[in-house]
Amino acid sequence: MNWFAEFPGGLDRMVDALVRALPAQGVTVRGLVAGSENVRISTHGTITPFATPDAPILQRISKLRRAADRLRTERVPDVIAAHFALYAAPLFGKFADVPKVIHFHGPWGDETAFGARNRVNAAVKRAIERHTYRRGKLHIVLSQAFAGVLQRYGVDAGTIRIVPGCVDAERFGIDVDRRTARAALGLSQDRPVIFCVRRLVPRMGLEDLIEAMVLVRRAVPEALLAIAGKGPLAAALQALIEQRGLSQHVRLAGFVADEALPLWYRAANLSVVPTVALEGFGLTTIESLAAGTPVLVTPVDGLPEAVVPLDPQLVLEACGARALAAGLADTLLGRRVVPGEAACREYARSHFDLPVIAAKVATVYREAIEAP
């Protein structure tokens, strides 16, 4: 969709991670992405930027097809791995005989429709998705929950393989204690800190999380919630914070640079993922665990699958402000016992580290190549 270094996002972080990790699994990677010429330079030619993300859509598609022609001239690939339906659909005809593996990160059209009034745009996106997904030989999804979602597009369940998200466990597992992390970020050493990383859009449940802090504050008066991210809800969320009298208890941290994220996780007592819909996996869950910080999640889609094997206590009883408040307050007060730092780190490293997940992805690619 975009290159992570230029437009950070969960999908793009995973693609960036796989590009770096797959060669160790015997997979030579070439990629096409919307980005600047810096992408080609920083990846030493591994990734080709076919157009800038803000170019008109028809121009992007035209340049994408020309870039694909050049790559095909160099060498016809053994397998096509598609991560974004809009850019995959125009290319499939050019590689008609090449097996295709579709990485399904989430329902693009449904995400657009959530909380929106104009449904036409979402309908067009769903049509593109349906066209694309049905042409995959195999499909990789992040969770069993999203395997079910993918089947709604008419995809055969027998072609679906579950491979969860990945994290660079070493990068997030920094050897920094909480006091040092807080000092670096200018946070109080004495207050319990809750951290949340989300795009500021309706389906993320951030309104519920802010409302929950009204109740959390009563049980834990010094509690501080920091929400990192940017998006169209920023002004509305800030207004809600002020309306509820939470200016000293909820802080919108804005965009947090990628290199600072491990520090934020380390600085927090716990993190939270309050999503209310369309969460295939929740990459921030394993980022937090890799940093050694327990994470509470709502019982939505793939979120429980990511954390239940570590401890079912990490899954809240329900969505909404009351369930969030009860889980957060009880954890901060020690009434809800969650895994410690060492257990969180080991779980993330053994189940979701880059080499672990890259090996599983490579296995699916080989299956697509070898299957009749």
UniProtKB/TrEMBL annotation:
Top-level taxonomic group: Bacteria
Coiled-coil region(s): none
Keyword vocabulary terms for this entry: Transferase
Residue span, Glycosyltransferase subfamily 4-like N-terminal domain: 8-171
GO molecular function: hexosyltransferase activity
CDD domains per record: GT4_PimA-like
Region forming the signal peptide: none
Domain named Glycosyl transferase family: residues: 177-350
Protein name, as recorded: Group 1 glycosyl transferase
Source species of the chain: Caballeronia choica
